[in-house]
Amino acid sequence: xxxxxxxxxxxxxxxxxxxxxxxxxxxxxxxLREKAAQEESAxxxxxxxxxxxxxxxARSEQLALCQDTGTAIVFAExxxxxxxxxxxxxxxxxxxxxxxxxxxxxxxxxxxxxLFDRKNTGDNTPAVIHCEIVPGDALRLSxxxxxxxxxxxxxxxxxxxxAGLAGVKxxxxxxxxxAGGNPCPPVIVGVGVxxxxxxxxxxxxxxLTRSAGGANPDPRYAxxxxxxxxxxxxxxxxxxxxxxxxxxxxxxxxxxxTHITQLPVAVCLNCHAARFAEAVL
Length: 281
Description:
Blueprint: E1 2-5, H1 6-22, H2 26-36, H3 42-61, E2 71-79, E3 82-85, H4 89-103, E4 128-134, E5 139-146, H5 148-151, E6 155-159, H6 164-179, E7 187-195, H7 197-207, H8 219-233, E8 248-258, E9 263-270, E10 277-280
Helix pairs in contact: 1-4, 2-3
C-alpha cells in the first residue's frame, strides 16, 4: 500500500494550474505550427501569427494564455493500492486550485449558485473532479482548465440507432458549424459516442485530454477522426472564425457500449489554447 499525503496532492494541483495556464502542451503547439503553414487565407494567417506570439509571450512572461482561465476540471486515476493520508482528497484538490489561481493571478470565474445570486466564489473553486479507480499504486492527476466560450458550444443528442454513422457525423458537423467563431478556432473537437446520457458527455470531455492529434487505437475510429477532421475543415470557418482552411486541429473520438435502443453522441469543443497538464504521484 502506497501512502500519498493530501498536502502533496494540493501542491501538485497548484503547480498544474500554473503550468496549464502558462505553457501550452507541446503537441498542441506543434499542431498549430503545422496547420499555420497550410493556411492560405490572409486573415487566417494573421490569426495564426497572433496565436503564436501569444504562446511565446505566455510562456516567457508566465502569463495566462487566455483571460478566461476556465473551470478547473480534474481527472484523477487513483491506484487501488493508494492510501491518501493527512486529509480529504477532494478538499486537497480544491485547495490546490484555490492556491494556484491566486498565485498565478488567474481569473476566478465560478459562481456558487447558477440561478439566484450568481455570486463569484472568489477562488475558482469548487473544481470539477472525476475519479476512476485503476490497478496499481500511483495517482495520476490531469488538469483541464475549460474556458466558458468553447464549453458553451458543446452539445448532446440522444439519437436513435437508425440514425447510424451518418447521423452522428451530421450532428458533429452541425455542432461545429453552429459554433462558428465562438469557441476561438482552430479547435480540437472531442466526440463521445455510446454509453448513457451522462457518460457520453464525459467521454467527449475526456477526449480532449488525449495527446493532441493522437489517433484512436481502434483503426475504425481513427479513420473516422481523419475523415471528420477533413469535413470540419471544409466548412471554411477558419482561424478565429475569419475564414480559411483550418477550423480544427484534430478530432478525437471516444466510445463506450450502449443500450440497444440508444445512440448517444456528445461534442465538446476546445479552443486553440487547448490547455492541459498532468502529473503522476
